[in-house]
Amino acid sequence: GQQLNQSPQSMFIQEGEDVSMNCTSSSIFNTWLWYKQDPGEGPVLLIALYKAGELTSNGRLTAQFGITRKDSFLNISASIPSDVGIYFCAGSNNAGNMLTFGGGTRLMVKP
Amino acid sequence: DGGITQSPKYLFRKEGQNVTLSCEQNLNHDAMYWYRQDPGQGLRLIYYSQIVNDFQKGDIAEGYSVSREKKESFPLTVTSAQKNPTAFYLCASSIARQGPGETQYFGPGTRLLVL
What we know:
The complex is a heterodimer.
Chain A: E1 4-7, E2 10-14, E3 19-25, E4 31-37, E5 44-49, E6 55-58, E7 61-65, E8 71-76, E9 85-92, E10 100-101, E11 105-110
Parallel strand pairs in A: 2-11
Antiparallel strand pairs in A: 1-3, 3-8, 4-5, 4-9, 6-7, 7-8, 9-10, 9-11
Chain B: E1 4-7, E2 10-13, E3 19-25, E4 31-37, E5 43-51, E6 54-57, E7 64-66, E8 76-78, E9 87-94, E10 105-106, E11 110-114
Parallel strand pairs in B: 2-11
Antiparallel strand pairs in B: 1-3, 3-8, 4-5, 4-9, 5-6, 7-8, 9-10, 9-11
């Protein structure tokens, strides 16, 4: 079946630093989604990408849908302590709206 | 307010006992999903339903059962056949349509612990 490789698995950065994480797939996706999960809570949608090459921003967050449709990245600029959490990528290929999730990137920010 | 609610927040289960986790949405979404999350892991699909009175097995359906009698409700039963039920359970919903994958919105989750 499809697999999403998300990297890095974890990051420990200083407040104010920029962060970059990415997901790669063995097959093509038509939609890429990025979620953030706080401890003990459900994932919250950050950015949705629907078109190859698309670059979308949401405040300090920027995500891109790779041209090959097999990858996506998420950047966070000028990190702050509340950015702490687990970030998940998810892809869909029109198969009944099913999503395939990456393993998550755990972000820790040192004040 | 529109959204997805899950209850209870924490649930304790004795060995050999069935328990049911509630998921309700008032977003008028057609599709609903159940995921399991283990510590430090991603999300794995248990069951999903695209329409009332119909549901499909996901990747890890063994030991679980669901029903979809109403559009807004999709309860998950963890049966005694599930040998390792301790996990964080997440419910999600989306507008089911053809074409690009529709965004899934998640509830706050239920943490299940086996005594």
